[in-house]
Specification:
single chain; two-stranded antiparallel ribbon
């Protein structure tokens, strides 16, 4: 597994990380035993980055990670958590007092004195544009509550604003074959600034697993049912904002372009990780098989797979089937 520099922190993280939203909630039930097995399989495969948030299962994801890592001293894992969605996403709620309360809660959940990396969780644009936001984050670093901070964003404009901040370690943005706009400005700007990029929702909420058909359904407590059109939170978080049936058809086209023996999710993760400026890709996993499959995609980065040919297929499908359907801010 390739290890890559995490911005200017002196840390390194794996090219394929693990997103842990599904260990908390919103993807159907996952037992703690299964969640722990996913974490173990990922670590055993070379993953050194776990991405979580204080609202995933109201802290359940953080707590499971904390208990897992406590049993593995000297683990070498970087835990990136997020804060900012425990209250309404209104600028006045992003205060030093709330930052302190949220980080204290995450420190307790994870069982650590200092959080490795805290990311603002898709805040309003006004928060990213406010100098006071970053003064408060700098104070948390100075006080030892957090070691570094970054921003998870919804739009490319937000990403560019965050990258321009001098002490931002990373930006997390949706980037996959259905969402190519970050290639134009965000990835080059991040690379030039020494800011790490975490590519989230890399498999478009499972669309790029290649397993779904137009008739596939999901549980009622799964965001792929209740947020398909942005009913509960930002629409772009579910299926990358692509219409489900359109995404199923596009995924089938990409799968058909692959050689025998290479799966669509593996090709997708390797393609994302191979783009200049991407530090780590953070797919989720609900079971050991998925965790092992995600991590194994790193092998495609080492050769034997024609990434250039897949890149041409990605751009062809995007230009023909998806570009007109994607919100221009994404």
């Amino acid at each position: 597994m390739q290890q890559r520099a995490l911005g200017r922190t002196g840390r390194s993280v794996s090219a394929i990380g693990l997103g842990t939203w599904q260990l908390g909630a919103d993807w159907g039930a996952v037992t703690e035993e299964d969640a722990t097995a996913v974490l173990a399989a990922s670590v055993d495969a070379g993953v050194t980055l776990f991405d979580t948030a204080d609202v995933y299962g109201d802290g359940r994801s953080e707590s499971i990670i904390g208990r897992f890592l406590a049993a593995r001293p000297g683990h070498g894992i970087t835990v990136a958590t997020k804060m900012g969605r425990r209250l309404a996403q209104e600028p006045e709620n992003y205060s030093p007092e709330n930052f302190r309360a949220w980080t204290d809660r995450s420190r307790a959940n994870l069982g650590v004195d200092t959080l490795d990396l805290v990311q603002l969780h898709c805040p309003p644009t006004a928060v990213i544009e406010d100098d006071a936001t970053f003064d408060a984050l700098d104070a948390l670093v100075a006080g030892g509550a957090i070691a570094a901070y970054g921003v998870s964003v919804e739009t490319t404009a937000q990403a560019l604003a965050a990258i321009a901040r001098p002490n931002v370690t990373n930006v997390q943005i949706i980037f996959n074959p259905f969402r190519l706009k970050p290639l134009d400005e965000v990835l080059p700007a991040a690379e030039a600034a020494g800011v790490a990029i975490f590519a989230r929702v890399p498999l478009a909420s499972g669309l790029l697993s290649g397993r779904y058909t137009a008739t596939t359904t999901f549980a009622s407590d799964d965001h792929r049912t209740y947020n398909r059109h942005g009913e509960a939170f930002d629409r772009g978080e579910t299926f990358s904002g692509v219409d489900f049936e359109t995404g199923v058809a596009a995924a089938a086209e990409l799968a058909a372009a692959l050689p025998d023996g290479v799966s669509l999710p593996a090709a997708t993760l390797a393609w994302i990780a191979s783009r200049p400026g991407v530090t780590s890709v953070i797919p989720g996993a609900r079971n050991v098989r998925q965790a092992e499959s995600n991590a194994a995609a790193a092998a495609l980065l080492e050769g034997g797979f024609d990434l250039a040919a897949f890149d041409r297929a990605v751009r062809d499908v995007y230009d023909r089937d998806l570009r007109a359907a994607i919100h221009p801010n994404w």
